[in-house]
Design goal:
Layout (H helix, E strand, L loop, with lengths): L24 E4 L1 H5 L1 H12 L4 E3 L13 H8 L2 E5 L9 E3 L3 E4 L3 E2 L4 E2 L4 H4 L6 E4 L2 H8 L9 E4 L10 H4 L1 H10 L4 E7 L16 E7 L2 H7 E2 L4 H12 L11 E8 L5 H15 L6 E7 L4 H10 L12 E5 L5 E5 L1 H18 L4 E5 L1
Helix pairs in contact: 10-12
Bound molecules: iron/sulfur cluster.
Length: 361
């Protein structure tokens, strides 16, 4: 039976919202303070009574601790409001997720032990929010492909919902894309505070996704995030129509990183059942399936950040994949990949016949 009348259903999993991240330090560079969007962020931060530091120069300093782990601890408690450098206005493609990526921030307050940012961002993992957002958004139209819909991914270097209460930048992106023809926004999160997004004029131009995983992975490796059940409740709220004239958002599930663990069939079956229980109504739904991988660099950084981690990063059990720039990454062996892929494609088709699987990787 379809249940579209209420935003909450009784879940079979515990719903634990993420605590809103409250940084211990908020630093503003002079350039960021001059930006109207920087002032808007300042108002939010001051309303939350967070301590603000005005930096003398447009450089971040004072983030290094006595060890790499201490630097990590300091950085993950710090929000730096900065202006994105001119290079941020030169967009890169991001296949298979979207045509282009752009960034409203870099860094994330959560503590996932497999975090892909470990291999892509360098330096202390301080959370940097960009104060020149209007300039970043205005630049996007230069990348629009004529005669077709161009997609833009905004969550490659951050979890935009995890810092939304401090920046308001995700809502601004959604409003911007709502007014554009032929330009679609995509974002993904492991947080659940979506109430401020529900009534935005998105025009169906933004696809909201949550990243989910089987209980042994999310419970052990995803510190500081909302529980999977809470993420799914958030996705449900986003997908439900708000009024006869305001439809729900297109939504998506990113199942990542898919890992082989004891009883993985049982655990991932349970995850898919929970998704199916929560999304018990017709909606525009996609799936993205990403198997676990790591690089020599990401392994080195992650083992510095999480020296006690039990995350499986044993090169001996993986295949090496090389990219065109000579970089290597470690992925599951071909037969394991095949088994995982067949399982997900079959079980998703069975439960969600109308949903599209965008890619497996
Ligand atoms: S939520 Fe995403 S970006 Fe944030 S720590 Fe986890 S994996 Fe990294």
């Amino acid at each position: 039976m379809q249940n579209t009348n209420t935003a909450v259903i009784t879940p079979s999993q515990p719903v634990r919202s993420a605590r809103l991240w409250m940084p211990e330090r908020v630093m503003f560079t002079p350039a960021a303070s001059e930006e109207p969007w920087g002032q808007q962020i300042l108002s939010r931060v001051q309303a939350l009574n967070l301590p603000v530091e005005e930096l003398p120069r447009n450089r971040l300093t004072g983030l290094r601790g006595e060890s790499d782990r201490a630097t990590y601890d300091i950085s993950k408690r710090t929000l730096a409001v900065v202006t994105a450098p001119p290079s941020a206005l030169k967009l890169s493609p991001i296949p298979p997720s979207a045509d282009w990526q752009f960034h409203l921030a870099e860094g994330c307050p959560a503590h996932c032990q497999y975090c892909y940012l470990a291999g892509s961002l360098s330096g202390p993992p301080v959370i940097r929010a960009f104060a020149n957002l209007p300039q970043i958004l205005d630049n996007l139209t230069h990348y629009k492909q004529p005669g077709q819909t161009t997609s833009y991914e905004v969550s490659c270097y951050t979890d935009p919902l995890g810092i939304e209460h401090l920046t308001g930048s995700l809502a601004e992106c959604i409003r911007y894309f709502g007014q554009q023809e032929g330009m679609h926004l995509r974002w993904v999160s492991k947080f659940d505070a979506v109430d401020g997004l529900l009534d935005l004029p998105h025009n169906g131009h933004t696809r909201c996704r949550v990243s989910v995983n089987a209980a042994p992975i999310s419970g052990r490796f995803e510190g500081g995030t909302a529980s999977v059940a809470a993420r799914l409740q958030a996705l449900r709220k986003l997908a439900l129509p708000r009024s006869p004239s305001q439809g729900g958002y297109p939504i998506g599930l990113v199942i990542a990183p898919i890992m082989v663990m004891d009883d993985w069939v049982e655990h991932y079956t349970h995850l898919l059942d929970t998704i199916s229980e929560t999304l018990d109504f017709d909606c525009d739904l996609t799936f993205e399936l990403i198997s676990h991988r790591f690089t020599p660099k990401s392994k080195e950084v992650l083992t510095t950040w999480y020296p006690q981690t039990k995350l499986d990063m044993d090169e001996a059990t993986r295949s090496v994949k090389r990219n065109k720039f000579g970089g290597t990454k470690y992925v599951y062996e071909a037969d394991v990949m095949k088994e995982l892929r067949q399982f997900f494609e079959r079980e998703i088709a069975r439960r969600f016949p109308k949903a599209q699987i965008l890619y497996w990787t």
